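Notes on consecutive records. When two proteins share a document, each keeps its own sequence and its own token line. Never mix them. Below: protein one.
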Amino acid sequence: MSDEVLATVSASPPRRWLGVGMLAFMGGLLIYVALSTQPAFGWQLFLLGVGIGALLMADRLRRATSMTLELTAQELRTSGGETIVRIDNIKSLDRGMFAFKPSNGFVIRTLQADSRRWESGLWWRIGRRIGVGGVTPGHQTKNMAEIIAAMIAQRDNG
């Protein structure tokens, strides 16, 4: 079988930097408020903790969205080579308006559960559900979802 990439999904640069910037700004603002206004000690610790957490999340979002998702005939994987899901493990795909899915994305339901994983802004996996999307352009995720749906239909009918 071929290892040809059928579709790719990568983070939209404006959305990526807006998300990273907003998280970093919020973290910096919370730390500033905690250190400049001297609230009660418990609140100061809370503000510092949430501020540091927001800065860590900003860095995690920055690193996660530097990857690209690639769809081949055998699997959905990251540009680093990590397999997210094999095509033969996909049970169904949901991209409806009321689906519990990431923004501009879709949800894959698998036959077998896998370990939890979260790459902020790009994809996540909890049990038998995999969400793809977030800071990604809608046309890329829609194209990938349609190709996966066609692959599932072809597999189930043939």
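Protein two starts on the next line and is unrelated to protein one.
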Amino acid sequence: MIPFSLVFEPGVALYEQVVYAAKKAVISGQMQPGDAFPSVRELSKALKINPNTAHKVIMQLVSEGLIEVHPGRGTLVAERGPCTAAERGKLLKTELEQLVVEAKKLGLGLDEVHEALDQHWRRLDGNKTGRKL
């Protein structure tokens, strides 16, 4: 079982998608320091990807300090300080770029996008706190 969600998107390198999903799980706190991370074999089998791709994913996450490989104990989420706003913001880069492109295609201005974002934000906050908007 993979401890993060992944939806494969055509046109985006599989390796990049898996790295992104794993980073998001670690940075968002879905995976905590010390949690087990899938081995190359487990990752390859669960996602039906080439073991070389799975190995590349793990090595990328190790090089970024997100996971650590401990012989005899396995692969674990690394102990690290709190995630910065910049790290969390980088996770949204792709989605924000897609939003901007779609808004421009529709001829929306920045003020209209801000207003739409504000409305959705308030709606979701309302659902969280039980308020009805």
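For the record: The radius of gyration is 18 Å.
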